[in-house]
Sequence to fold (505 residues):
Amino acid sequence: MSRGKRYDEPKLNLKKVFAVIILFAVIIMCVVMLKGILDGEEKQGNVTSIDYFAAYQNNKWGVIDSNGNIVIDPSYAEMIVVPNSKEDVFLCTFDVNYDDGTYSTKALNSRNEEIYTNYEQIEAISNMDENQNLSYDGKALRVQNGGKYGLINMDGNEILPCEYDQITALQGVENALLVSKDGNYGIVDDEGKNLLPTSYAEIQALGDETSQGFIVRNAEGKYGIVDISNGQVLESKYDEISKIHQGDYYVVTESGKQKVVRRDETEALNGNYDEIKAILKNPEDGVIYKDGDKFGVMSLSGEITIDANYDDLQEAKTGTFIARTGEDFGIIDLNGDTKVEFKYRGITYNEKADLYVTEDENYNNEVLDSNYEVKLTGMVTDLDDEKGYIEIRQDDEYKYYNFRFEEENEADIFTSNTLFLSKKDGKYGFVDKDGNVIVDYIYDDATNQNTFGYAGIKKDGKWGVVDRNGNLVQEPTYDLEDYLQVDFIGSWYLGKDLNMNYYRK
Fold:
């Protein structure tokens, strides 16, 4: 490394030295302050960081960024997968032969350069939760060489060599990848760390987190449970193990009969029922059981505490159940007493907020507190249990409440937003945090400003978009009546299939 020319001086000029030191200190302080400001803006969502999304235009696929700029020109016949919106790694599929199922893949970056070229195939690892929501592992990519699979991270570094017959996500569980070798299965995480050795005939997830353990089958066809460190929780001696557990209680099947056993293998319940649906949050209270096509509650002693009279039954909080008879939902307690009348088309419970949200046949909601009192009515559009607010549409206006059901100012919740939806004389516009009108009240409907600074506006049945400063980006020209969610990035609007998470125009 070149160090530049050195000058010899007879002695140091201390005044100059001190001046230079002070100058450098000032420069460093300025840099630190600027970085802090930029970091703060990024944390507050002020569109300083870039996200990437698949884009669809003229029946072709490409990539856009969160400013609406085209990053990869829409020219591919197959959808480009963006496994992590924060990384400029885009996976393309091409030369697809639908007759024999063969295809080619490549990875591109935001400069449209091909990357990770030393692999025959490179693909994202898809996962699906219990509600059939699609996602991709955001840290690892599956690669193939010589007919064998391995893993690389988003920087292209190998974290698992290409020596496996297959690598897939363990469905419904984050950061658990199922690997197979010579007919046996194991588990690794998305950093390539081995969680379970490749020594099992089958592995299933016990719950939706790796910490809950895994159901495993041995070569003799018997099932057991192991924890994340491959420690034996239940011996592999059962005909079947259900994905039903609570604490140290598990549902197993022996000789065609379901029963509840404890971690020490002792029997907790072997009663008269057709099926066990769930172990209660307090396992000593028993289980939800099925008799014919109806559900009830049985204690561990075999006593029926709630008769099997319900078409569906699920425990919301300890000793409280959301029940269904026919199409009507209500709430009952452990004694079978009705707490909320059976008149709703749906009821959900949010544990963090400790509240219930009901829904009627017209998709209108009531929000009930822990004492089953109706606190809010309208259409709940968001319930954020991290930030602690409820967004609800009431009389065609969006309002915000905390979990004490006190109305909140939108600007106090979304501190980085520059536009706030407002309604006047039946029309929508936008104001700033001080209430100054930024976009006039001329629209029939509108959306809140999203993470990337854009807000949808509707006029004469068509949708358009304004940016974070209220400037018109797209005249209202899009017909989005059939779309479940209206959202924009620049002039691109969110695709109809929310699972695919792409934008189009």
The CA atoms of residues 316 and 489 lie 38 Å apart.
